[in-house]
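Board notes, transcribed. Complex of a protein with PBG.
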Amino acid sequence: MDLSGPSFPSLRLRRLRQHPVLRDLVRETTLDVGDLIQPFFVRPGSGVRREIGSMPGQFQLSVDQLLREAEAVRDLGIRACILFGIPDSKDPEGSSALNEQGIVAQAVRALKRNLPDLLVITDECFCEYTSHGHCGLLSERTGRLDVDNDRTLEILARQCVVHAQAGADVVAPSGMMDGMVRAIRAGLDAAGFEHVPILSYAAKYASAFYGPFREAAESPPQFGDRRSYQMDPANSDEALREVALDLQEGADMVMVKPALAYLDIVRRVKDRFQVPVAAYNVSGEYALVKAAAERGWIEERRIVLEVLTAIRRAGADMILTYHAREVAHWLR
Ligand code: PBG
């Protein structure tokens, strides 16, 4: 019997594609608002709602406006957000990141007081706070000016403790320092925050897709680039080593970033480790869709749902995405 061609009746795959209900029943991947994490950019002041040029529909918000926005997304069914801070002043040490009155600490306290059910994740990094725009303290220990890994670990752990004290539900270190998860876990535990999980940006690539974010967070490096700490986009095995190390050091969840050009990495991580995996659908991915949609070149809604479903299909349990709000609206 020849089972190879479509002439053998049981091999007709189109049979399950005829009826919309049947298509729903056999669908392998779901996309739910409960899978989405909304990023917010928060800055000092009040009444501030400043649209980000390269990210239409995304804003730098003062705390009062953040509360309004967060309530709106919460009412649409989004249950988690991640905060990025833009401080009033920057210095070479990024010292405002360690201040209990710092912008992210203030925002966390306000969110937890007003919207206690919304899960608040804090991004833990120094590029938004340093005058040079790099993700930690600089030194010339290696013979050229570069981020000093081990000195940065100390302040990273302190930054996480400040945010945990303010009420952050999850801390998410994004600086790609070696040993950051171990240092943060030790710091949190010593301060009595054993219960606060770490979502590590474990496989974070040195990507051109972060361009719009750096406008949004006012954090472009003032010299050089981030290739001495973020990963080479050409590497895949190395991502597995990054994830393995972070898990050994105590990461509770791991992230792959960006998402769309790195779906193979998401899949490899999920297949290898079976831990909760997040994918970050980053600013450049958002900007590409928005720009093409503005010109009427693509069907925005279908594209966004297809992209996010594909990220889920690749193995992501959760997705950080600037599309969260509109998706929540569409899926209602
Ligand atoms: C901070 C950080 C960045 C992003 C998230 N956390 C920027 C960077 O590494 O330069 C990018 C997010 C995005 O592009 O949406 N280290």
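Residues 123, 125, 127, 135, 174-175, 210, 213-214, 226, 282-283 surround PBG (CB under 6 Å). The chain has one domain: 29-331.
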